[in-house]
Amino acid sequence: MGDVFEEYSEKKHEELPPLTIIQGGGTILREESDRALQYDKNSLSGYKMVKKNDFIVHLRSFEGGLEKANSDGIISPAYHTFHGDNTDSRFYYPFFRSKRFIDVLLKPHVYGIRDGKSIDIDGMKTIMIPVPSYEEQKKIGGYIELLDNLITLQQRKYMCRIYHTEIGYLIPILYAFTNGWEQRKFSDVVDIGSGMDYKHLGEGDIPVYGTGGYMLSVDAALSEDKDAIGIGRKGTIDKPYILRAPFWTVDTLFYCIPKDGYDLDFTSCLFQNVDWKKKDESTGVPSLSKVIINNVEIASPSYEEQRKIGDYFKGIDNLITLQQRKCDEMKELKK
User: Fold this and answer.
1) Residue 186 and residue 256: Cα distance in Å, rounded?
2) What pLDDT digit, counting tens, does each position of 83-109 carry?
3) CA 8 from chain center: how many Å?
4) Segment 232-256, tens digit of pLDDT
5) 3-state class of 191 per DSSP?
6) What tens digit of pLDDT does each residue of 107-133 get?
7) List of E strands, the chain
8) How far apart are alpha carbons 232 and 250 in whole angstroms?
9) What residues contact residue 84 under an 8 Å CB cut-off, 6+ apart?
């Protein structure tokens, strides 16, 4: 490594802006950092200059590898700066951040315990690193940069979908009294059952105890043709989700089947709009009861309007899943 990157130390550059090192994120202007950093501006003459795309061994490098300067600036004199001629930082930065570099190549040159760990800089310079031609570095670096941009784009789309979904859950509140929506209780909207409720069993069916609690007879699933909304009876009570038929159930789960005239996807939105943690009346494990769920008041429009709203959010949920899958695939490709 010492044959490729040369350490330098230049001070007395007060004209340059102070930088803050972000683990896994390079550098940002210190004035833009949300950290409460205190420093004496009169001591800036002792700070080290770092040039854009050069590398920094920072105070916690033993945890996160080397960092890259995203702009020209000055940094604490406790850091070490490295420059490489005919090197592409887009190629070397992912390498210096890789698990192999940090956990295998760099590890022998880390000493100390816990937060007192440091890097033996001279030892680090002896690490053998790959050195393809500059042209190959640029091509590989450009490809990785493209992946990073695509990952950022997919994450932005993903968060945008999440935002629209969260805003959408406010629709029942915003329009309940302006578009002819009617007040209802969940007892008017869904039929609630659970693995502890066996009145739905046919003659000869026997409840079977499984790894997750009571389930139905091994001969048939609970619902062969009707989807439902699942919500925890005990434990995780605040994450309702859709159960697609045929499904089984357990004694720690309620299944809520929409009655005639109520759309599944829209009703699922209503369930997700409730702060179920505030409905918990237990003193130990969070719990819900049928009485609590049935008494929750909601606003509901006509079936046609429910269906259109439900389809809209179903489409957004599908896009969220798609964007997240694309993002995950590109992260794996980058690795």
Assistant:
1) 9
2) 999 999 999 999 998 888 988 999 898
3) 38
4) 888 888 889 888 877 766 667 888 9
5) strand
6) 898 887 666 678 889 999 999 999 999
7) 6-8, 19-22, 26-29, 48-50, 55-57, 67-68, 73-75, 80-83, 110-111, 118-119, 182-185, 190-194, 208-210, 213-215, 228-232, 241-243, 253-258, 297-300
8) 10
9) 4, 5, 6, 55, 92
H or E stretch at 120:
none
Q: Residue 10 corresponds to which tokens in the numbers above?
A: 């230049």
DSSP H/E element including 88:
none
Q: Are strands 110-111 and 67-68 parallel, antiparallel or unpaired?
A: unpaired
- Could you give the C-alpha distances from 87 to 27, 55, 74, 134, in angstroms and in order? 19, 11, 22, 6
Q: Which two tokens stand for residue 48?
A: 């080290």
Claim: this prediction has a pTM higher than 0.85: no
Closest by CA to 58, choosing from 88, 19, 95, is 19
Cβ 161 vs Cβ 323: under 8 Å: yes
Q: Give the C-alpha separation, 246 to 215, whole Å.
A: 13
The full length of the chain comes to: 335
Spatial CA neighbour of 71 closest among 98, 59, 89, 96: 89
Chain position carrying tokens 């909207």: 189
Strand arrangement, sheet containing 55-57: 6-8, 80-83, 55-57, 67-68
Are 114 and 95 within 8 A, CB to CB? no
Between helices 134-168 and 89-96, what is the axis angle to 10°? 70
